[in-house]
Amino acid sequence: MARIVMKFGGTSVADLDRIKNVARHVKREVDAGHEVAVVVSAMSGKTNELVGWVQGAPKVVGANSPFYDAREYDAVVASGEQVTSGLLAIALQAMDINARSWQGWQIPIRTDNAHGAARILEIDGSDIIKRMGEGQVAVISGFQGLGPDNRIATLGRGGSDTSAVAIAAAVKADRCDIYTDVDGVYTTDPRIVPQARRLKKIAFEEMLEMASLGAKVLQVRSVELAMVHKVRTFVRSSFEDPDAPGMGDFLNPPGTLICDEDEIVEQEVVTGIAYAKDEAQISLRRLADRPGVSAAIFGPLAESHINVDMIVQNISEDGSKTDMTFTVPSGDVDKAIKVLGENKEKIGYDVVQNESGLVKVSVIGIGMRSHAGVAATAFKALADKGINIKAITTSEIKISILIDGPYAELAVRTLHSCYGLDKN
Ligand code: ADP
Ligand code: ASP
Ligand code: MG
């Protein structure tokens, strides 16, 4: 007997038939004698609809920009998961399984105060463990917890993955299964590149980079938690027949295991390609080339919660003036330009230019640590397709390249092929 946390994403619980199908997956593990806790997302499209309602609702218009109260945003958007946890508990009860739904506040899952993007601080797993010991299946609403103000706080988009891994750590589960609409983690998004291959295993560090650089199959924070707490996490499909042979295999379930790099015997140089759309580039021209100028630019941007990513500073030709270029999410451009305008005197630049609709494609692999020439291969392959590179950043295990939006799919396919990742 083992303890398993099973998480089902939005498409897996999109309607009553799919919820019934999810209940069959749960029943399989219960019948095998395991203790089970389930984490559910909202039905697919529901969270977008709720977010849309909040954005469309009348708001107080402040001095600077229209704002809504993030606590009320959370009150609205957390409701999607409440519906699915109740419906799944009902579907399980109909199969004679002792099941009960739980909201984040009932456990409680304690978070910090960052409404809309809260981090889990602590989970009291004792009640869940006790109930599981009595043979009850806990069906827990993902994406939500309880802030220090005793109000519902949500964990950021895709946050149910994080709920699941955090609960698995809290109840010391033997395994956390993330069920979704693909049957594992692929070398790149299989919806963009049909040649993508499913990975049997992927190292925590690589999955962390893949998720941070745009592969939305897992929320970044869930991978961090899995790595820190050594949660054995599998990504697998909810669309396969729950009772097909091998589905209940405890040690080797179908899907992708996220694990320590030592567990991966045949490590490739490049493991995967990720991409992030809606990047924008901002350039400050003829900037004073003196100490403190970067702090003057990026300090105020950080204070305004603008996430700056790639930064390129040109070498000054005359020793006094230079150019600085960096990227931000497209949605933050207007805010960034405003902040830069307010600080123009202090920073000391001539003009600011911006371009939206860019894409960042990234090549990821732990094997890069010990191989030279990986970046050169990417640059040549992109050049051969006539794709212009606007900015580059690298780390030990990744290369990120900024390009024009319309070339995104071509670039991802090109990089996927040039490292030999295409399936035969
Ligand atoms: P869920 O609703 O189950 O949480 P998501 O839509 O958040 O599902 O994540 C699953 C999706 O992630 C897939 O449908 C796929 O298009 C996308 N995806 C992006 N990159 C990858 C990858 N490398 N491997 C698998 N899926 C990926
Ligand atoms: N329902 C939330 C979202 O759409 C959380 C999740 O699905 O993980 O972002
Ligand atoms: Mg998701």
Q: Report the CATH architecture of the largest domain.
A: 3-Layer(aba) Sandwich
Amino-to-carboxy terminus distance: 39 Å
**Average of pLDDT:** 95
How would you sum up the global shape?
Answer: globular
Beta-strand fraction estimate: 25-35%
Which structural category do the helix and sheet elements fall into?
Answer: alpha/beta
Provide the CATH superfamily of the largest domain: Acetylglutamate kinase-like
Q: For the record, what CATH class of the largest domain applies?
A: Alpha Beta
Q: Helical stretch count?
A: 13
Report low-confidence residues grouped into runs of 5 or more.
none
Bound small molecules, by name, code or SMILES, are: adenosine-5'-diphosphate, aspartic acid, magnesium ion
| Rg, nearest Å | 23 Å
Quick description:
Belongs to the aspartokinase family. The protein is 32% helix and 26% strand.
Question: Which key phrases capture this entry?
Answer:
424 residues, alpha/beta, Carbamate kinase, VC0802-like, eight-stranded mixed beta sheet, six-stranded antiparallel beta sheet, 13 helices, 20 strands, 32% helix, globular, binds adenosine-5'-diphosphate, binds aspartic acid, binds magnesium ion, EC 2.7.2.4, Asp/Glu/Uridylate_kinase
What is the element layout, followed by pairings?
Layout: E1 3-8, H1 16-31, E2 35-40, H2 46-56, E3 60-61, E4 66-67, H3 70-77, H4 79-94, E5 99-102, E6 109-111, E7 120-123, H5 126-133, E8 137-141, E9 144-146, E10 152-154, H6 160-170, E11 175-180, E12 201-203, H7 204-212, H8 220-229, E13 233-237, E14 256-259, E15 272-288, H9 293-303, E16 311-313, E17 321-329, H10 333-342, H11 344-347, E18 351-364, H12 374-384, E19 391-395, E20 398-404, H13 408-418
Parallel strand pairs: 1-2, 1-11, 2-8, 5-8, 11-13, 12-14
Antiparallel strand pairs: 3-4, 6-7, 9-10, 13-14, 15-17, 15-18, 16-17, 18-20, 19-20
Helix pairs in contact: 1-4, 6-8, 7-8, 12-13
Magnesium ion (MG) binds at residues 9, 158, 161.
